[in-house]
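We both want to read discrete structure tokens more fluently, so let's practise on a single case. Once you have written the record down, we can walk along the chain together.
***
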Amino acid sequence: MTFLHKITRLFLIIGFIGFCLNSTTAQKSKSNTEKQALFIYNFFKFVEWSNFDELKSFNVGVIGDEKDLVFNELKKISKTEKAKKLPINVKRLKSLSDLDGIQLLYFDKSASLKFDKIYAAIGNKHILLVSKGYPYGKSMINFVMDEDIVQYELNEAKCEWAGLKASKVLTLVAVKSEKEWNGIINKFENLANTEEKTVEISTDELNKVVREQKRLLSEIGTNSKKIELQKEKLKTQSEELTVKENQLINTQHDIELQQNLIANQLDKIEKQQSNLDSLNENVEIKHEELVAQQAELEKESKHLLEIQKEYKKIEDALKSKELLVGLQGQTINAQGNEIVTKSDKIEEQKSIIWLSILFLLIVSVLGIMAYRSYRLKNAANILISEQKAEIEGQHDVLEEQHREITDSINYAKRIQDAIMPPLSLVHQHIPNSFILYQPKDIIAGDFYWMESVGDHVILAAADCTGHGVPGAMVSVVCHNAMNRAVREFGLIEPNKILDKTRDIVVETFEEGQEDVRDGMDIALCTFDFKSNSLLFSGANNGLYLIRDEELIQYKPDKQPIGKYDDAKPFTHEKIELKKDDVIYTFSDGYADQFGGVKGKKFMYKKFRDLLLSIHKKPMDEQHKILIDSFENWRGNLEQVDDVCVIGLRV
């Protein structure tokens, strides 16, 4: 207790003693009911309610009081006075079942109430019992009338049981026992009958006050030392807080560097994708040229085979002719002596020789042609080998670029997974829940998001424009905008979070030269588990609530998070939750999936019927059923979009 509190307490004690003395003096001019009502009004000033911060008014309930005497006096006071700056409401109660919202209950013997039933009806409510005429020690505060003087007894133990703390002022003035009661009555009667305006206090009482003051001064000295120690501790904590703030600034700087790195990686991925597309086009062109060349070579090869066959025939004929020439030469040598006489035969042999020479010339030409074809074929084979080596080199480049792109995308996925809350953290705040998250590609445009602020948990299922790399880039911008809306701007209402997120996203995209209209559809919920209520806002994505076998749809605002021509402030709906309510938020990926026998969309009607059929099952089993139903419906068809479904049970 600080020095200020000690002094305040001392003045309050002296002031209330003066009030009681003056009240005792004035009791001769007031009726008993007026006196009781005045005492009840002052009880509000000197009793502390443990739930005072939650109160908007002090409510007084009255039972009994057959002629409404105290009731009417309390009504008069409530019209002109306030208790601790709060208005006073006075109500007549029919029975103990009407105690909800009551802070003080007054009853007399005409109510015929039994204390065991009274305390059972109070339960854990913070209610001050003020009775009249009941036995000593039964009530919290009990009025006892002695002719025109009002006195009361105080039971501190019963007050503390109800979460109430009576001031030392009330304890000091209250009756402690029946013997003390009789003495105090005589004392107040003497004070009331004196004609002097001063009040005499006995030496014993004065000594008690002096001893109390000395004790308080001693406590003040001790507490002053404690305050100095607390100041030193506070200074140390302030220095530690400064260090942590610096660490937070460094962490934010690291986050910005990571975001810049992500942006650079994504730019690099786009460039590599563009190069990959160009290389693919070049490969296709080269492949077409190679096919044409192979067809031409096959044609030349067939022609060369025909020439080789013809050359073989000529070569065989030439060998026959050479054999014939050899035989003829022998004949010429043998018949050398007959040359003169056989000139006709010589002329004939000359003709044969010339024909043979001509034949040899023809064979030579054919050989040259065959050799030329061989060289052409060899050159074509060399060209094919070179082109094959070039294609293999391009293929290696493509594989390397594909590996780099895949590594970059996988790294982007790790970053995207890192910015989303882990499922263990979600289950820590919302134990009875599941999240079905199934991207179409390695990285996704869909994401789920959660923040905890005091007694509130904020949860969202978001769907950004596109999927894969473009969708992931938009999701990083939107995720960062939502973090800023809650952490930097301190917002918890979902409609205000969406308004601020839209402003940040539009501002981010307008920094460039191009008109970017990408954005995000989202269903955003703020849970207050203390009051068991939910605030919902949506941008094109709604919310389903299943209660008592009935599915209730909550519609979103028909506008996205992003640049929009007819943008309006987002609205919200407040939902009072009940036990076993089941809530679902989702993106459009599940309902838009093609599949089934006819290859059609799953559709929202079938999705709602599926949720109604499984909502009573445990959340883990619901998660498995949703995945199996999705895969069975999709079959061999490609997944068309990212899928995100969140379910929880109250």
Summary: The CA atoms of residues 249 and 255 lie 10 Å apart. The chain has three domains: 3-200, 258-416, 420-649. DSSP finds 14 helices and 20 strands in the chain.
